[in-house]
Design brief:
TIM Barrel; two-stranded antiparallel ribbon; 11 helices; about 15% strand
Length: about 300
């Protein structure tokens, strides 16, 4: 496994990381992703660690906290061997303070996440969305307090626009607070909006990209072809409405090119799509996922013999 610095920080993360959204899955979206219990999750963690994948990404909103809880059980007894990344900021309930990143919400969200994960620190805390109702100074001073308390080690963002990131970084620099070092973004061969604004910003400001849905929300698995129906086993039947849209003709054109490269190199379509991402500027880590140990074994090939 190759390791890269996370943005301008000193933290080294694996080129491929593992998304725990399938852990404890419930509901129309997360239940379709996967429903791994603690036993299956521990098996997946075993496979990842054996391959050098030691960064596991989750969020409090994934299955209402069940993903964090199962991940915590899966890494119990080997906390020092793993890096845990989680996210907060999206609604966790109907109450007026159940969403956002106010000081009150952030402190409670971190405490709750620590309890579910069974740990006393979070390696990387990412804000899951920009909170326009809370001053960035309140957000960043709270994150600074959490870092000083040893409960969080590095911070990042997800679903932020360029101006929102820059406003936050300017405030951090002005007051001497920790800067964001990670930006978790959607980026794939069928979704390249990241390149227009956020990629040059990240290169200039030292944010490492952590890529989610690198196979285009399941469209670059090699199972979708022009003139053929989506396979019955595809999760797209249940999850397409939740993910980024893709123009069908654009997808088929990209698949034609990937098929040609696969025939020439002997690699699979997912391997090629993932490998392309690892060569792109600012990319620190690409999140992969698996429903179970068998599918994790298949997807492990891209980081072996690229």
């Amino acid at each position: 496994m190759d390791y890269r610095r996370l943005g301008s920080s000193g933290l080294k993360v694996p080129l491929l990381s593992f998304g725990a959204g399938t852990f404890g899955g419930s509901g129309p979206l997360f239940g379709a992703w996967g429903t791994s219990d603690a036993v299956e999750a521990r098996r997946l963690v075993d496979i990842c660690l054996e391959a050098g994948v030691n960064l596991f990404d989750t969020a409090d909103v994934y299955s209402g906290g069940a993903s964090e809880q199962v991940l915590g059980e899966a890494v119990k007894g080997r906390r020092a061997d793993v890096l845990i990344s989680t996210k907060t900021g999206l609604p966790m309930g109907e109450g007026p303070n159940e969403a956002g990143t106010s000081r009150s919400r952030l402190i409670r969200a971190v405490e709750d996440a620590l309890g579910r994960l069974g740990t006393d620190y979070i390696d990387l805390l990412q804000l899951h969305a920009f909170d326009a109702f809370t001053p960035v100074e309140e957000v960043l001073s709270t994150l600074d307090m959490l870092i000083r308390a040893g409960k969080v080690r590095y911070i990042g963002v997800s679903n932020f626009s360029g101006w929102q990131i820059m406003k936050s970084l300017a405030a951090a620099d002005k007051h001497g607070w920790p800067r964001y070092v990670a930006n978790q973004v959607y980026y794939s061969l069928v979704g390249r909006d990241y390149e227009w604004d956020l990629m040059p910003l990240s290169a200039d400001q030292g944010l490492g990209a952590i890529i989610w849905s690198p196979l285009g929300w399941g469209r670059l698995t090699g199972k979708i072809r022009r003139g053929a129906p989506i396979p019955e086993s595809s999760r797209l039947h249940a999850t397409a409405e939740f993910g980024p849209p893709v123009d069908d003709e654009k997808l088929y054109t990209i698949m034609d090119a990937l098929d040609a490269i696969a025939a020439e190199t002997g690699k699979t379509v997912p391997q090629i799509a993932l490998n392309w991402l690892t060569t792109r500027p600012t990319v620190s880590s690409v999140i992969i996922g698996a429903r179970n140990g068998n599918s994790c074994g298949r997807i492990s090939a891209p980081w072996a013999g690229r």
